[in-house]
## 1
Amino acid sequence: MQHPLHLHHPQPAPVHQGVHAIAHVNHNVRHGRSNCNGDNSHSYSQAAQNTALPKHIPVPYIPRDGDVLFEFIMFLFTVVCCALQFLIIYRSIFWLPYSFNEFALNVDVDIHLIVFIGVILMRRLVYTMVSRVGQAYVSSVLWPAAQRVIQLIMLGWVGSVILFCLYNIMHTHPIVKLFYLCYPLSLYFILFGLRVGPFFDLTVFSVSESEQQSKSILSFDGSPLHNCSTSPEAIREEVDFLKSDINNRMKQVLFNSVFSAYYAGFIPCCFATTLMYYETYWATFHILWLWLGSFVLYLTHCFPVRYCDVMHRCALHLGRWHRLIMPHSNVHWTGNKLWPFESVVKHYDKLYQALSSTNAAEPGNPVHNRFYDLFQNPSRIYLVVFTMHILMILVQLMQLATASEWYQAISMASVLFFNYYTLYKLLRDLLISHRVYKAERIVKDRENS
């Protein structure tokens, strides 16, 4: 049975293609973005008497990099940046007539260190390719167990190579440098505990398989779904789950971006010989650009437009309360009711006024307030990230224009090449999300008028 929110409504004059898509809200379900299954018709009839439930405009299809392609791009980006850092440190003057070097690099790098960094950077790419092959030949029933087996095999392979490299590095470098190599691994245990999955896979499942089947809050690929519920308790539970999923994704973004910058940028400097002179200024900025570039790449992949649209839809159902000082009210807030716009309630001896058409949030709850403020209009998030990325590219262009050495120009041009690709994705997501949510506001204003 179709949810009442998804019945066809009379449409206003078309504003753009996003408004025309209102008549096809069922398209969301086919693309795994919504779970409006219509099992709340009774509660809907009660809530509809006092509240105007929000209507959602579907986000158009946006091409997104697959997991294998994304991991390949990340591996290529980090490997190129690592090679450029070695170039900054071990560059040679091979063009001089009396130079003893025939190559651009004065090769004096421990081969075990290179193998160590390479295995660390390629671990997720290898795991993702093996997982895609396994999913093609293993049934969906046996896949969870097979996935754990693959993770354990990958952990054994990576662990054995790391131990072998550490053993050989120990004979040629001070013991303290071994702690530099192992420091990020200790940070991993602080963030993720003893779980093996997050080390190889960006997808983090926050609930058990039984909860996934009972709540139907995850799609087939692990992305959360939105349930257009009229139950305030269910809306708040959905917010709690989505908040947990956001935190897990942000931990992955922060850890992996720092992890990549540490091993591809800092470790080459850390293991440079004491007699080797290199420009600390350029090496430091190279680490900074590597970290920022990795951070934005991970951010755009883990938080695509459709994912943020799920948060936006939930935020519209959640609503927000504003604290009042002067008015007086004897109506106490209850958690089993959807409160309409401009309702004034008392909660813990404080007065609040509803700011949204539907309000299921708890008055004064900072988690609910932050969730609504962030995802009321997700295009603002993309605007902030896009602005920061533009500023970073402008600074890099200034450094490229003022570069006086050949290796400086090569390093900046290579980093800018990857940043232009991220800039295109950010601009595309910003424009699409802005047009969709602008159309949503226009439709809402016309219905209210």
Note: Confidence is low (pLDDT under 50) at residues 1-49, 206-215.
## 2
Amino acid sequence: MSARVRAGLVLAAAGLAASGTAAVLPARAAAAGCSVSYAVSSQWTGGFGANVTVTNLGDPVNGWSLTWSYGAGQQVTQAWNATVTQSGAQVVARNVGYNATIGTNASVSFGFNGSWAGSNPAPTSFTLNGTACTGGVTNPTTPPPTTTPPPTSTPPPTTPPPTTPPTQTLPTSFTWSSSGALVGPKNDGRGIAGIKDPSVVYHDGKYHVFASTAQTAGYNLVYFNFTDWSQAGSATFHYLDQSPIGTGYRAAPQVFYFAPQRLWYLVYQTGNASYSTNPDISNPNGWTAPKHFYSGMPQIIRDNIGDGYWVDMWVICDSANCHLFSSDDNGHLYRSQTSVANFPNGMSQPVIAMQDANKNRLFEASNVYRVGDRYLLLIEAIGGDGRRWFRSWTSASIAGPWQALAAEENNPFARHNNVTFSGTAWSRDISHGELIRSGNDQTLPISPCNLRFLYQGLDPNAGGEYNSLPWRLGLITQTNSTC
């Protein structure tokens, strides 16, 4: 989150290089005033990320829209904590359900990713709720009456701007290239056999990875961070059984930043659907003791689980609700929900979101992400050759219905037959993993451009008891981007 910056600071020249540049502009609310901080947080060839903070300097605002224009053809591709639309050069960011109100001297922040070509100058002006940026705090005045409208050189628009972001497309088939094995157990006396089930976010210049530690004696969690993937294997391990998360069965973590509470959440399985929170993702001892979303296994799961296991909890939120997915290793995907305002409390009883009579085709490790104005669902399957792979679906809503995207062994999302390796393939399994997100908050945004997926792989010749298998982490990168 960019720090609050008051009106009156000087805006750097529009031609500044965008990377690391923060433009601070005065803005005026409809009946008062505000300040706006626009900061490019990162930039790469053809793309950039930005954070915007609006501080209300006057009377409370209930419902807001912030408008600016780009002068060099930039396009917003993805946003979080606001609904952002673009028509030509003009961009409009509107509040979502949980941040509509901005009290006096309070702030609201949102972020987005965009594309650029040639140059990426900062916007030179903003308007808030239709009022041009003028600086300071002003009182509304009554305009003099007029009998005729002012002259205009162009007719007013006859249609409103679009109310949803432009659709971003995913291909209907995928190809990938894989790294070698990047991360495995340390030789530190713990007797860990495998590192698996990774969750990853990029924050404050570092990749932060949480994963399961597996051995015959059971599972727990590990955290490590690094600035470049070449450093992943040498990163220091922080074992979370030494934190308030504690010892005992903890596995399959998912990490995200819940912006309404300004807390990081770590969701994981303990025999129940559990979570811990932390204000600082880089502090491994800052996690709270486990709490549970449910009082116990919900009845609908008991009725359908058969000889499977209740596993792999996953949370994603839209502007109104937070949804909790889980699997049962028996062909069922479950979904519960609660409001963003009540999260993490009040999870509803699950419903079956998807099912398959062949449990191997809908096994476990579901992931759900936001891609523009749609959602992408990934589920791990077991192939006819016994190897793990991922199927995919898309939907306009987190609640479904879901339409198959790349969901068959001859057209998979990710499987050994659409992944190339340098030299001999170190794994024939593309198993439990997570896409590299374009933002860290609870909406789990991803960009369809050059997808990367951190996965667990396995020596093809390995065998034995499942918990003692030598799982390692690797990274696949999409090679057929539509962007």
Note: DSSP finds one helix and 33 strands in the chain.
## 3
Amino acid sequence: MEQVGKEDEKITFNRYAFACSVVASMASIISGYDTGVMSGAMIFIKEDLGISDTQQEVLAGILNLCALVGSLAAGRTSDYIGRRYTIFMASVLFMIGAVLMGYGPNYAILMVGRCVCGVGVGFALMIAPVYSAEISSASSRGFLTSLPELCIGVGILVGYVSNYLLGKLALKLGWRLMLGVAGIPSVGLAFVILTMPESPRWLVMQGRLGNAKKVLLKVSNTTEEAELRFREIKVAVGLDENCNDEVVNANSTQKPHQGEGVWKELLVRPTPEVRWMLIAAVGIHFFEHATGIEAVMLYSPRIFKKAGVTSKDKLLLTTIGVGITKVTFLVISTFLLDKLGRRRLLQVSVGGMICALSLLGLSLTIVDHSKHQVFWALTLSIVATYAYVAFFNVGLGPVTWVYSSEIFPLRLRAQGASIGVAVNRTMNATVSMSFISIYKAITIGGTFFMFAGISKLAWVFFYFFLPETKGVPLEEMEMVFRKKSRGKNVATETDPKQEA
């Protein structure tokens, strides 16, 4: 075990595991593109189809309501057909939805396509980080599991650039190409995903020990590490750690196919540590969107217009800046997750968000109450928006997906993660479908002061409820939360190197 630990210090991640995580995360690029491209496409859709503000809110938010359905279905689906084929299903749904939206002769067809894409988004958001977490070693799990969130950022940026470039085409053609072009990478992903290995943890749950060991040998840095991970997984599913059969009776493993048993263990009669895991997962997903990120990512052209940016080109260019900021700080976060840990990044991230949201609320309030353009307030609002996006994406954004995909025990992981994603999509839909109505009721500045207040609650929640998980093997997470449920300070007590 000491040898594995030393090996992990020299090699931060396995190249094959990295490649698998990248491919799995490609679904997240398409998911992010659907979010980013709609922010600019709505400007042209409103002009072409003549839809109202309420219809815009519904069009923006319906993706997340359907993603809620998709995420709940994805947990059970991935336990039945495997993690890999669940990603395949997500790519097929993206393709169908993109074709329908690209066709988009009217608002109704556009909504149907958006709904189909939404179910695909739910599948992708749930399964990509779970697959990455299950295929990576403890030392590189933060890096690899944050890749789906980074890819969402890349997709959003590509969507913004697409808005700017295709917005120059004829009105009826431009926005349809913006939405329909996502079908092309979806087809490619559907083929590439079939060349990937299945999650070794899912294979063990199916009793396919020989196949699982072959995958572990490829995704581990050393044979010793592969053997250690293999033994830990066998123990986690209820098998003898010394069992070396190629195939065992699947009934001898603690299979999560007994859906009612899993839901009962998660929601009806959870152990203290599982209850704490569920509180942590639901809480972090709730606050990710309750703090207002979707309002900024989806309605940034409207926010900048309120601040004083008027032309379409300048609005879309300023929005591209939001996407560049998001991707830049997501890249930074991928290298910090396994060095600084989840808790520290969360505390710095949310602290910065509170300051940025307060400044944004102040600057927009000044602009709103001024009869003439106040250049310094316009500049401050743009800087504060970028700062908010930067702080969010260096911590809260990626940590949410890493944390919720790694804390649940194997038998509960898929459906536990799906509950978190369902809460995430519910809050996303709530914010995206109510933002316009809220800022009309309490002013746009007041709305961002509200988000700053919610961010303060988030900081307190993260400080008291989320133990550190950096470097902890997946099979030892219950021990971490068992200590937390008994009131011990796991953040300072847990030393991954000592446990290794």
Note: The radius of gyration is 22 Å.
